[in-house]
Design goal:
Strand order of the largest sheet: 1-6-2-3-4-5
Largest sheet: 6 strands, antiparallel
Strand content: 35-45%
Number of helices: 2
Length: 80
């Protein structure tokens, strides 16, 4: 039985996860998708900024920084 998707911000630093769902508003979704963040993509949570915002992830071989509010709307499943 697989675990339910959880927000990207809730996984531990260094964890590799797979994007399960992107719940961003329609006006924000295309920008994130153009940067390579699509359902089924593997990403690694790299770090949080000192005050928790922004969030840095590694996706498709490069590091990407997202606002914490955006990262909270990206739901992921932890890879086994």
């Amino acid at each position: 039985m697989s675990a339910a998707p959880q927000p990207l911000t809730s996984v531990a630093i260094g964890t590799t996860v797979t994007v399960a769902e992107i719940k961003l508003p329609p006006e924000s979704r295309p920008r994130v998708m153009e940067m390579g963040l699509l359902v089924g993509t593997q990403v690694e949570l790299v770090r949080f900024a000192p005050l928790g915002d922004p969030v840095e992830i590694k996706v498709r071989g490069y590091n990407l920084t997202l606002r914490k509010s955006e990262a909270e709307q990206i739901f992921v499943k932890v890879n086994s």
